[in-house]
Amino acid sequence: MAVLGAELLAVEEDGLGTIIYEREGPNAVSLDTYVGRRVEMHCTALGKAILAHFPEERVEEILDRYGLTAETEHTITDRAELEDNLERIREQGYAISSGERIPGLGCIAVPVIANRQGDVDGALSLCAPLARIKPLTLPDEMLDMMRQTANRIELDMAFD
Fold first, then answer.
1. Contact (CB, 8 A) for 75 and 99
2. E-assigned strands of 25-121?
3. Handedness of CA 88, 92, 98, 102 (dihedral sign)
């Protein structure tokens, strides 16, 4: 799936997004990500895909603990704006970040929901330079591929 860049899988751990898998495609750029890397969730597509599916109380706990640190000039630092963004993510089924944690980097993420209760277990993302992603305007094929991959992970987790 990582045609454009890096593919990441993350889970929430103690209020932060923790990368548990990383694969770089042939066209990937070097990032500061690695398995075990922890990042604030409000400024990544992975984190927002997870936050969007958490109960409101859990999101509030995380935001109270870590705040909304401005990683770049594009980071969402207003709670109301983040809440609107999370609502949009729930409606469309995917999250996007455009230079919110790393200038010039774009990511799209889909949630991984492996249990019958519908609780989010993590998120899968594809990251690449914005210049590579923007002209594509998120083709349906790429999003479908990501959803299929997330579904395979969900099934593996549910029946492991």
1. no
2. 38-39, 95-98, 105-112
3. positive
